[in-house]
Design goal:
Elements: H1 7-22, H2 29-41, H3 46-59, H4 64-70, H5 75-89, H6 96-111
Helix pairs in contact: 1-3, 1-4, 1-5, 2-3, 2-5, 5-6
Amino acid sequence: MTASLTHDELLALAASARLMMRVDGELTEGELAYAERMGAELGLDRATWTAVWDEAVRRHPDRRALQRAADLARPEAQDIVYEHLYRLAERDDLVDAEWDVLEWLDATWKSS
């Protein structure tokens, strides 16, 4: 998958991914590895993805991070973000808290 996200959409993905990694209270090696690899899967070099991730951490350090993803208007961006959040969550067993995030995003996007 090549990156077809704007800078703001990348920030929303990174911020939401960070939240997804913390939502179940357990940060795993699989999640860390996928988060590092996510930029490459989007067609970004490591330095660019690291800069996006760091900016997302600074600008969206709490639960408002998920609202950034919910505010995405483009269906293509929504699909990309959802796919990566799902793939991040499935690095280990998907738990209820992760499903809740994914279902909330899906419902939010469908209602807008």
